[in-house]
Amino acid sequence: MGSKEMICSIAETKNERIADINHAVWSYAEGGYQEHKSAAKLIEVLRSEGFAVEERAGGIETAFIGSYGSGSPVIGILAEYDALPNLSQEAGNAERCPIEGQRFGHGCGHSALGAGAVGAALIVKEYLKETGLPGTVKLFGCPAEETGFGKAFMAKAHCFDGLDMCFSWHPADANTNFPRAIANYAVRFDFKGRSSHASSAPEQGRSALDACELMNVGVNYLREHVPASTRMHYAYLDCGGDAPNVVQDHSSLLYYVRGPRLSQCTEVLERVKKIAQGAALMTETEVHIQVLGGLNDYIPNDTASRLLADAFLAYGGPDFGEEEYAIARKFFETLPEEDRKRAAASGARLNGISEEEFAARPLSTAVEPYSEKVRQTLMPGSTDVGDVSHIAPTGQYMVTGVVLGTGDHTWQFTAQIGTSIGDKSAQSIARAIAYASAQVYEDPGLAEQAKRELLEETGGVYVSPIPDGMKPGEGV
Ligand SMILES: [Zn+2]
User: Fold this and answer.
1) Is this structure's pTM higher than 0.85?
2) Residue 156 to residue 2: CA distance in whole angstroms
3) Separation of 148 CA from ligand 1 center, angstroms?
4) Ligand 1 centroid vs 174 CA: distance in angstroms?
5) Domain 183-295 in this protein, CATH class
6) pLDDT tens digits, residue range 311-353?
7) What distance in angstroms lies between residue 64's CA and the mean position of ligand 1's atoms?
8) Does domain 3-181+297-458 have CATH number 3.40.50.970?
9) Domain limits of the chain?
C-alpha cells in the first residue's frame, strides 16, 4: 500500500474523533487566552493517543505542545481554538438566535481548525508507527489568534524553533490556496490632561479628548505620505466620559498599523508616535504609548504550500452529502441578494456547473491547485501564523467549511461550522496535512529545500513584534 492509501485508511478511523473535537470546542466557545476547556479537550485527546504533552508552552496558560515520535524531520501542525465575542449562535439555525448565556461564538471556525489540526497529528502518529520511519510530529496548541497575537508570543518564547516544516489551514467558503498576509502592530495611546468646569473655568482644563482628536486628524494627514499598501485604523478605548461640562482629563486610542512587512510598519509607527507626541504638545497633555503586540507578515513557503495543496487535490475536497447541502441551502438564502448572485456566479464558474445548479448545492467542492502566484498575492488581513512562517517553512490551505459568500466573523459562520459541514471540512484537511507530512518523512530532502527557500526570503533573521517583558493579553 502506498502512503496515499495508507493515510486514507488511517484517516477514516479518526473522523469521528475529529467531529467530536469540533463540536466540543464549538460548544465551549472561549475567547482568547480563556480557552481552558478547549485546550484541555485537545490535550486529553492527544494524551489518550500516546502524545507527550507540554502544557503552558512558552509560559502561556492555554498554549501547549503535543509531540510524538523521535528524530527528524520534525513537522509542526498548528491548532487554534479561540472564539469571537458577540457571535454566539445556535448550530445549523439560519435565523439569528444566540445561545442563551453565551457571548462568544466560533465565527472564524477555529473549533474546526483545531479539530482538523489534531486529527492530522493523530493520523501522522499512526503512519509513523506503521512505517517505523524516523521523525517527529508536534501539534501546537495556539491560543488567542484573533486579537491576542498568541503565536507571536509563542515564537518569542522559542516554541517553534527546530521545526523542519509546518502546516496549518483555515475553514473558508472555498478550497483555495492561502496567500501572503500583511504584518500588523497594535498600539495603545493613553492621554492624560487636567479636568475643569468646561464652562466656568475652561482655561484651567487640558483636554485629553482634544489630544486624541488632534492625533486622529494628524494621522489622517499622514495617510498620503506612507506606502500605498499601509493600513492605519483606530478605535476609542476611552473617550473621557459622558459629561460635556467636564474637560476630559483622560482618553485613549487603540491603533493598528499594517503593511506588507513588519519593517515598514515599524517605520510608519514611529511617525504615528510623533503625531501623538505632537497632539500632546498642542494640548499640554501627556501621552503614554504602549505597543501591545504585533504580527509578522505571512510567507507562504513554496515547497510546503505546494505539498499541502497537492495532497489536498489528491484526495479531493470535503465529502459533502445531502445532509450538508440541505443545511447549506438555508444559509445561502440568508445572504443579501447581491451577494447571493455573486456567489452563484463564482460558484458556477469554480465548479463548472450552472448558477441554478450551484444555488441548489451552494458548497464549493472544486479544489484550486497550487500556483506560485499565491506567493505574490497579498491578502489585506493579518494572521499570527506569519510569525511561525518566518521561523519554519510553512504551508497553509483554505477548505470549504461554509456556504460560498459567507463572511468571516459572522453568526452565519458560527452556525455552519458547528454542523457536519464543519466536521467534513476538518476531516478532509486532516488527511491532506498527514499525506503532505508523510512525503516529508519519506523524503527529508523536501524539508531541506523548503528551509533553503525560507533562508533566501528572510536571511535567517526573525524579528519579534512583541516588546520585551510584555505578557500575553496585557494592556488590551
Ligand atoms: Zn481565523
Assistant:
1) yes
2) 39
3) 12
4) 15
5) alpha beta
6) 999 999 999 999 999 999 999 999 999 999 999 999 999 999 9
7) 19
8) no
9) 3-181+297-458, 183-295
First to last CA, the chain: 52
Q: What is the Å distance from ligand 1's center to 247 Cα?
A: 41
C-alpha cell at 415: 452556525
Distance CA 414, CA 171 (A): 11
Q: Are 420 and 99 in contact (CB under 8 A)?
A: no
254-to-121, 202, 212, 301, 438 alpha-carbon distances in Å: 38, 27, 10, 32, 44
User: What is the distance in A from the centroid of ligand 1 to the CA of 474?
Assistant: 21
* Ion ligand 1: residue ranges with CB closer than 5 A: 108
Q: Say how far residue 189 (Cα) sits from the centre of its chain.
A: 25
pLDDT tens profile 65-96:
999 999 999 999 999 999 999 999 999 999 99
For the CA atoms of 438, 439, 440, 442, what is the dihedral angle to 10 degrees? 90
- From the list 446, 424, 415, 303, the residue with the least C-alpha distance to 26 is 415
| Cell output for 81 | 481554538
